[in-house]
Write a structure and sequence with these properties.
The complex is a heterodimer of chains A (about 450) and B (about 950). By secondary structure, chain A is mainly alpha-helical. Chain A contains 17 helices and no strands. Chain A starts with a helix and ends with a helix. The chains are: A mainly alpha (about 450), B alpha/beta (about 950).
Chain lengths: ~450, ~950
């Protein structure tokens, strides 16, 4: 208790339970639709339409519309998948991991970070489906009883992936929804329109806020947090096994699981900041998402950035020290080959740019933080592309070395899922409380 | 109604296809009938004006239904079908039959067996009994089935751009024949390609007897006349050489791709490779040549040199051999010593592109070395004797002396040297008939185009290079209205009803007058050749020493060559051959101006830059492709591209015929190159050519092997127990020392396994589908590299990296060690391809297989699935052939013998570089090879345990030219 007392306050002092609840709840219940939201919605919906077109063309013509070939049989689709899954890491990390660590500052950001996780994982999950040569048979990857008496091939990392991502999506969704229940009840009680009362009422599952409710709620939430925490580590570890499992030089590496997890959390924090900073400004939430929040997230991002940099160094060291010529050739090719700009771009965005966060001034400047986060997000995307493409385009036999050149449809699908993500997120902002009302109330009650 | 029988007959002869007529009135085309047609059902029209009753409606409806069935009845001749009440002897539905025939190219036959599935020829194999095949085939033979089923083939008679009929052509001939009769055929000319067909010769002779003033000319774009002229000069008689590589210890080729583009190349390659084994006495090959050729790639020592300079160099060598004074050129000196050390066991080969004088020098060299009758024998050329030069015909045409011209098979408008202006000459001929497989450039200018029957549709006969005669039997009735050359000649002779079979039988009855003709005939058809028809050897005596040619002026030369995949352009519409990578450049779908790296650097050119090539007055533009190993002052362009007809051929490449000259068909000095500012995309299947420090192709020298012994290879240790394969254990060994890179195996695989073509754009996007590819690596200096070929099919790894990563178990191992691909189960994650270190897997990025073109359906191998979009595919070791053999094994109880299962690539290979068999049979050839000293696994240290492994390449360099 003593430690907590000495902490600086998590939210700006002066909130009462009623004012906090009103400030968050009114964003959904009373606030009119503003121009920024509308413009954002239009843009996202436009990109979403592009995605729809790209998917229809893909289904009609085949994956040949992308730039993939032999040797580079995986391209943007898999890189984007890995990237989106990575982004989806921060939400659960913030809500579950920090919850278990009793980090109270998570309260202001966990709700939208969890929403971000869900939407990012949804975007990610599209790719493994779409990239199949015959996507309509995707269910053959599922272990279901069938007349062929065939199971999936359980040794394949793609099957591990399916389970890892599926579990993560399910647990994240549950965790998010359980956390929402008291807030939904709050909205139900405060909603001015009958329709809203009904909708939130149904979703609130009859929550009355009795002590027994709270007792059960708390233990369920703790349990789910306990379940979700290892998943944060496992999902990207398993995604990385898609690569580490293969014998392709540049993929076949034991460092990949921790390296991928660090990168994932890194990009996730960047995305949280990218969402938090404009939202904070647009909805004047600086009382709830304070400079301290930004500072703490920036510190975490910096820590992750250093971990990622360490992973790069380890990669380099093991290619050299391992004494395996194909590994070394692959590394040299990564650094000097056709796709070397990807490597140097990654270094710049992921290692160099984040170093400015050592300065407390930068950590507290929303604009600077936003720019750094954008760079990190871009850097992580470039890194994913680099991992997928550079290793494949030159493997063992020089006769089969080739190139990968993304086509219009590659870009369209990438932009399309970004559109899908923001479309869902903007809907979320209008329909659900972006900050947990009940937890903020608790903070106010505890006098934080 | 008045009718004229003549009018009716005329009308019937004008129509094309099956025309159904209802009445004689219709045929007369009376106006009254026209009106009747317009009203459709005039007698019943009144019904529709009166209110329709239900009863009447039902009556009409019933009648319509009943009559609708009648429309299915046609007035074709009744053909009697016999159902399989009892199976015809020897035919089991589902089991293919094989028939012997032969394919003719440049007039020479190569024996083959075609595989027929219930009457559909689907695949071609070599004829082991035929001296020019020895069981092997080349890429052209493999691709012939696609020509047969090509939907672009000419399907009907055409006159002056309008569809017509054979009957109309016959009536036109009737008129023509009256004119010929009157003028003793003075305006009648016959133009064919080079031919050795006894039936054709007999028919032409008959025609010339009937019309004594008619004349016969031959024209073939692949002009080998220098061979005969050279022999004439050396020996005083026109002879053709036959090389005996089996007897030669030291071989020198002078501008010759003798292992690839001679009529006897299949045999030569076999015999050459047989002497290439380091276990036996191994031969040594020197190549002096301008273009980089397959023969040059096999050479132990190769010297790039302008084609124009080869004669001078040969003259120096001859002088060196004759006077014995050491030459200044150490290379020449070393070659000379080596040749002199092997009298009677050496061989000098001169390419057909060299002028007669150089051939004469070659003969003198062989005579000096005592090789005549030893390593090189001679026969007279296969009959018929040469005709007057083609240029004479064109001159006659220009002078207007030709009234009727038959062009049978050739395409001279496109292939004739432009200075002859054949097209203008042809326009002056009032009656010209062109018989061809396609409506091509020539048929467009002829008054009649006649569809030719493909050789798999028609009876014919031909002689091989050594004179051995074969009877060509058809595998299927003509798909369209095609007729053979013999049938058209029979028409010209006034007996239009004679079938090709009768005509060919008549020829052979004449040659074999005995009472046992039927037995002779059946035997010849069965065996695919007529025994005892090879030409007797002639022992020529040299006439003095030829004088070496003068030194040609320095500067760029243009070397024209037949294309390695589409030859002189006759296969330009064959998509298999278009997409077959050229063995050395690995280009597909285009030709290019090939030049050496030095020349390209000098001119500031890189791959794909478009240059203007000018020889004298004429010029074309072509993209540049850098060909390491080519002579610096030679620019090589292959024939056959730049076609203007055919959906496949159209628009691909540059037409080298424009630069051809009638006097010097192959080599021309004074080439001027000008760089344009354009570039042209070229589609290659291999972009990197050096082995990045890894011993992918293991190379050693004979001397090194002798010094150090074998190069043992061991499988790396493994933590996992060995898997037992109690039944069969299939495996393949590929001898890199025997592979010449000819690529017949690639097309054989394509034909056997229904592999689709993807087109140039998709090749450029690295999506070609060949299950078997031939990697080509260079080693050593850029301007004179050593070239190695490595055929790469699926390795069928015992520890297959592809299998563990497939999420749906679509690629699995079977109990005989095959890495099987289950197309039905594949969802297309492509993970297997990523994890395949050999990159042998191919993915259907789009719907590459043609599911709609009717004729192509007939071509496909019914034993192999036609794949759909979105699935992975790869080499199966021709599992359908293994299964067929196992079926026989199960039915007869007799175990599968070694060599009974032969993969398509193995069967096609001229040099027997590919050996397939059962490792569990210790006596099998493949087991013996794998136990041998040269055996190694590609990327063996990955511990994939590949079942396809290699035998290393061994060179036999001259110690005087190469430090060990």
């Amino acid at each position: 208790m003593a430690a907590r007392d000495s902490e600086p306050p998590v939210i700006r002092p002066g909130y009462t339970i009623a004012s906090a609840a009103r400030e968050i709840g009114d964003l959904v219940l009373r606030r009119p639709i503003g121009w920024p939201w509308l413009m954002g919605m239009l843009l996202s919906a436009g990109l979403l339409t592009l995605l729809a077109v790209a998917v229809v063309v893909l289904l009609v013509r085949g994956v040949g519309i992308w730039g993939i070939d032999i040797p580079v049989a995986w391209g943007f689709a898999i890189a984007n998948f890995v990237w989106w899954i990575g982004i989806g890491h921060a939400g659960t990390l913030i809500s579950a991991f920090l919850y278990l660590m009793r980090q109270r500052w998570r309260t202001s950001i966990n709700r939208f970070a969890e929403a971000m996780t869900l939407f990012a994982v949804l975007c990610a999950a599209l790719y493994p489906l779409l990239h199949l040569g015959r996507p309509w048979y995707f269910y053959w990857l599922l272990p279901y009883p069938n007349t062929m008496w065939l199971w999936p091939q359980f040794r394949s990392p793609l099957i591990f992936d399916l389970f890892a991502v599926g579990t993560y999506l399910t647990v994240s969704l549950l965790f998010w929804y359980v956390g929402l229940i008291p807030d939904l009840a709050n909205l139900r009680d405060r909603a001015p329109h009958r329709f809203q009362q009904l909708a939130y009422g149904v979703l609130a599952l009859g929550w009355r806020g009795s002590a027994r409710h709270w007792q059960r709620y708390e233990s369920l939430y703790l349990l789910l947090a306990g379940l979700a925490t290892p998943l944060v580590i496992s999902v990207h570890s398993i995604v990385s096994i898609d690569f580490a499992y293969a014998i392709v030089p540049g993929w076949h590496s034991t460092i990949f699981p921790p390296y991928f997890v660090a990168g994932a959390v890194y990009s996730g924090f960047a995305m949280v900041l990218i969402l938090a900073i404009p939202m904070r400004a647009a909805f004047r939430l600086d009382g709830l998402i304070t400079q301290r929040h930004l500072d703490l997230m920036a510190q975490l991002m910096l820590a992750m950035g250093l971990l990622v940099a360490y992973s790069y160094a380890t990669e380099f060291f093991s290619s050299w020290y391992g004494g395996n010529p194909p590994e070394w050739t692959a590394f040299v090719n990564q650094v000097t080959g056709v796709y070397a700009p990807l490597f140097w771009g990654t270094l710049f965005c992921n290692v160099l740019s984040v170093q400015v966060l050592w300065a407390p001034k930068v950590r507290r400047s929303p604009v600077a933080l936003f720019v750094v986060s954008l760079l990190v997000l871009l850097g992580m995307w470039i890194e994913r592309v680099m991992i997928v493409i550079t290793a494949l385009h030159r493997d063992y036999l020089p006769s089969r070395w080739g190139l990968y050149v993304p086509t219009f449809w590659d870009w369209a699908t990438l932009c399309g899922t970004i559109g899908l993500f923001f479309f869902l997120f903007l809907l979320f902002v209008r329909l659900l409380p972006i900050i947990s009302i009940s937890e903020v109330e608790k903070l106010v009650e505890e006098g934080a | 109604m008045t009718m004229s029988w003549d009018a009716i007959r005329n009308r019937l002869s004008d129509v094309q296809g099956a025309r159904y007529w209802q009445s004689l009135e219709e045929l007369c085309d009376e106006p009254g009938f026209q009106e009747l047609v317009a009203r459709e059902f005039p007698a019943h029209a009144a019904f529709w004006e009166s209110p329709l009753t239900r009863r009447r409606f039902l009556q009409l409806m019933g009648a319509s239904l009943a009559l609708a069935g009648l429309t299915a009845c046609s007035l074709r001749t009744a053909e009697k079908l016999v159902p399989y009440v009892r199976d015809p002897e020897g035919v089991t539905p589902g089991k293919p039959q094989f028939f012997a025939s032969a394919m003719v190219r440049d007039g020479h036959a190569t024996g083959l067996l075609f595989e027929s599935h219930l009457g559909r020829p689907t695949k071609i194999e070599g004829n082991p009994d035929h001296p020019m095949s020895l069981g092997a085939t080349d890429a052209f033979m493999q691709a012939a089935v696609l020509d047969l089923w090509d939907p672009d083939r000419s399907q009907t008679v055409v006159t002056r751009g309008r569809v017509s009929t054979w009957e109309a052509f016959e009536s036109e001939l009737l008129r023509q024949r009256q004119q010929w009769q009157a003028a003793q055929g003075s305006g009648l000319r016959l133009l064919t390609e080079e031919t050795t067909s006894p039936t054709l010769v007999r028919q032409v002779e008959a025609l010339l007897r009937q019309y004594p003033r008619a004349r016969w000319y031959r024209h073939d774009p692949v002009d080998r006349s220098a061979l005969l002229a050279g022999a004439e000069e050396a020996f005083g008689q026109a002879l053709v050489p036959h090389y005996r590589f089996d007897r030669a210890d030291v071989v020198l080729t002078l501008d010759s791709d003798v292992l690839a583009d001679e009529p006897a190349s299949l045999r030569y390659a076999r015999e050459f490779a047989a002497r290439r084994r380091p276990e036996g006495p191994m031969n040594r090959l020197y190549a002096v040549e301008a273009a980089a050729t397959l023969t040059g790639a096999m050479a132990d020592h190769r010297r790039p040199m302008r084609s124009l300079d080869v004669g001078v160099w040969a003259g120096k060598l001859l002088a060196r051999l004759q006077d014995g004074l050491p030459a200044a050129d150490p290379w020449l000196e070393a070659v000379a010593r080596d040749l002199l050390a092997h009298p009677g066991r050496s061989l000098v080969v001169v390419g057909y592109s060299q002028p007669a004088l150089v051939h004469a020098i070659g003969h003198a060299l062989n005579a000096r070395l005592g090789n005549l009758g030893q390593t090189v024998t001679f026969t007279a050329p296969a009959p018929p004797p040469a005709t007057a030069p083609f240029a004479d015909l064109v001159a006659e045409m220009h002078r207007g002396e030709v009234q009727s011209l038959f062009i049978l098979g050739a395409n001279p408008v496109w292939t004739a040297a432009p200075e002859l202006a054949f097209d203008a000459a042809l326009r002056r001929v009032p009656f010209s008939a062109h018989l061809g497989l396609y409506q091509d450039e020539t048929s467009a200018l002829c008054t009649w185009h006649l569809p030719e029957a493909h050789f798999l549709e028609a009876w014919s006969d031909a002689r091989a290079y050594d004179g051995t005669a074969s009877i060509l039997q058809p595998g299927i009735a003509p798909l369209y209205e095609g007729r053979s050359t013999h049938e058209v000649l029979a028409m010209a002779l006034g007996s239009p009803t004679r079938s090709g079979l009768e005509l060919v039988r008549e020829t052979w009855r004449g040659a074999h007058p005995g009472t046992d003709f039927e037995a002779f005939w059946t035997g010849a058809l069965e065996k695919g050749l007529v025994p005892g028809t090879s030409l007797p050897p002639v022992v020529p005596t040299p006439r003095g020493t030829p004088v070496a040619p003068p030194q040609a002026p320095a500067g760029l030369e243009l070397v024209l060559r037949p294309d390695p995949t589409i030859w002189d352009g006759r296969f330009a519409n064959n998509a298999w051959l278009q997409e077959l990578p050229k063995p050395l450049s690995k280009l597909t779908w285009d030709n290019a101006a090939l030049m050496s790296p030095v020349a390209a650097e000098r001119l500031g050119l890189s791959n794909g830059d478009v240059v203007e090539l000018r020889v004298g007055e004429r010029s074309i533009t072509a993209p540049v492709w850098i060909a390491p190993g080519q002579a610096d002052d030679s620019v090589v362009l292959t024939l056959g591209y730049g076609r203007k007809v055919g959906r496949v051929a159209h628009g691909q490449g540059s037409n080298a015929y424009v630069l051809r000259s009638a006097g010097a068909p192959w080599i021309q000095p004074g080439l001027v190159l000008r760089k344009t500012d354009r570039t042209y995309p070229l589609a290659t299947t291999q972009r990197h050519h050096r082995m990045a420090g890894e011993p992918l192709v293991q190379v050693s020298t004979l001397q090194a092997i002798a010094a150090t012994g074998s190069m043992p290879t061991e499988a790396p240790p493994s933590l996992y127990p060995e898997v037992a394969y109690p039944g069969h254990k299939w495996a393949m060994a590929i001898d890199l020392n025997a592979c010449t890179g000819c690529s017949a195996c690639v097309v054989a695989c394509q034909a056997e396994n229904n592999i689709p073509v993807v087109g140039k754009e998709q090749v450029m996007r690295e999506r070609e589908m060949h299950w078997l590819r031939i990697d080509r690596y260079y080693e050593g200096p850029l301007d004179a590299p050593r070239t190695y070929f490595q055929p790469v099919p699926c390795m069928h790894c015992e520890n297959a990296p592809c299998e563990v990563v497939c999420p749906t178990a679509a690629t699995v191992h079977d109990d005989e060690g095959l890495n099987a691909m289950v197309y039905n189960r594949c969802v297309g994650t492509r993970y297997c391809s990523n994890n395949c270190p050999y990159k042998v897997r191919r993915f259907n990025f789009f719907q590459f297989s043609d599911w709609t073109t009717e004729s192509l359906k007939g071509m496909r191998n019914p034993e192999v699935t036609v794949r759909s979009r979105g699935v992975m595919e790869k080499c199966t070791y021709c599992v359908q052939r293994i299964q067929a053999a196992k079926g026989d094994e199960a039915a007869t109880g007799r175990p599968i013998r070694d060599g009974e299962v032969r993969t398509a690539c193995q069967a096609a290979c001229p040099t027997r570089a590919i050996v397939f068999g059962d490792l569990n049979d210790p006596a099998s050839e493949v087991a013996a090879l794998k136990a041998g000293p040269r055996h190694y696994a590609l990327l063996g240290d990955l511990d994939t345990r590949p079942r396809t492994t290699y035998l290393s390449r061994v060179r036999n360099p001259n110690p005087a030219l190469e430090e060990a």
